[in-house]
Design goal:
Elements: H1 2-7, H2 10-67, E1 72-77, E2 83-87, E3 94-95, H3 101-119, E4 128-131, H4 139-152, E5 158-161, H5 166-171
Parallel strand pairs: 4-5
Antiparallel strand pairs: 1-2, 2-3
Helix pairs in contact: 2-3
Length: about 190
């Protein structure tokens, strides 16, 4: 009798059980809705990747070919956006991780630029901002990238921030480029 009394009034317990069952039903409905939304998002993501990856690979390949002065002819991206490249004369593509650090950095820049070109609307002339994007390039790679960026800047404004003076030195005598050197206030 003491144990039963300690549990509380049976009417209150039944009401509490009913409330918990209703809460469980509501939470199960929310869970089912979230699971359905997640499934739809995963499906949409897969479709987007299967449509976007080839276009991104083609555009990144065009840019990478220009940045490397034709050394590499093709870039392929799988659905997870893992890259492989084909050098001129190669029978098979090689994984991007097998590239030299300089070529890998060029590939990374090419993919970034390709994404911007495919995603940012040309008609709105959205500026592109790059921060120390060429920091690890050697002088030849840097010059090739700056030439490409200068041509690309005819279509949209490109802001290239760097803490190095090399890029400014390369671009100093080009009238179509504005170089702003910021100095630290003393």
């Amino acid at each position: 009798t003491g144990r039963i009394a300690a549990l509380g009034d049976s009417v209150q317990l039944e009401a509490r059980a009913q409330a918990l069952e209703e809460q469980l039903t509501e939470l199960q409905g929310q869970y089912d809705a979230i699971a359905l939304a997640m499934e739809a998002l995963e499906e949409a993501n897969g479709e987007l990747q299967s449509r976007f990856s080839p276009a991104l690979g083609r555009r990144a390949g065009e840019i990478f070919t220009r940045l490397t002065d034709g050394k590499y002819q093709r870039v392929t991206l799988d659905r997870q956006l893992s890259a492989a490249v084909e050098a001129e004369g190669d029978a098979v593509a090689r994984d991007a991780c097998l590239l030299s650090q300089g070529a890998f950095d060029q590939l990374y820049l090419a993919v970034r630029l390709a994404i911007c070109q495919l995603v940012l609307p040309q008609e709105r002339e959205v500026p592109m901002v790059l921060d120390d994007a060429l920091a690890n390039f050697d002088d030849a790679r840097c010059a090739a990238a700056l030439d490409y960026l200068t041509r690309e800047a005819q279509n949209r404004q490109i802001l290239l921030f760097t803490c190095h003076s090399r890029e400014a030195d390369f671009l100093e005598n080009r009238p179509e480029v504005a170089v702003w050197r910021l100095t630290e206030a003393l």
